[in-house]
């Protein structure tokens, strides 16, 4: 899968700021992002395919992905309970671990009626990851699941 876009938030409640690259660490998550101090909430990854499916379902196709408040948008990412605990390598060195499914917040209903329900199915709201190995990655970098033996 490929990284399509990156965004961070310096203060909770503010708009997301798009970026060309991220530096991530286990201690801080995304450098400069307000969510980094909580390891289980460091990074949310959203699949463009799932986002588009949800928007199409509720009739809001022009809604930007940043309305979801995820930090990384990838072209396609299969997520399920099967992947919890698995590790995702991004770029040449960063490694993240899938912690849980992201539960979309009620604000999604203000974005578009029905969006909360559409995102709540089949991991469409994305996955929450923590940083295991520091690294830098950029838009267009590849991301891939490491073999399960490395996830233990």
From TrEMBL:
Annotated MOSC domain residues: 1-152
Gene Ontology molecular function: any one: molybdenum ion binding
InterPro entries, per the entry: MoCF_Sase_C, Pyrv_Knase-like_insert_dom_sf
SUPFAM superfamilies, per the entry: PK beta-barrel domain-like
Transmembrane segments: none
Gene3D superfamilies linked: PK beta-barrel domain-like (2.40.33.20)
Name of the protein in question: MOSC domain-containing protein
The organism of origin for this protein: Candidatus Vogelbacteria bacterium CG10_big_fil_rev_8_21_14_0_10_51_16
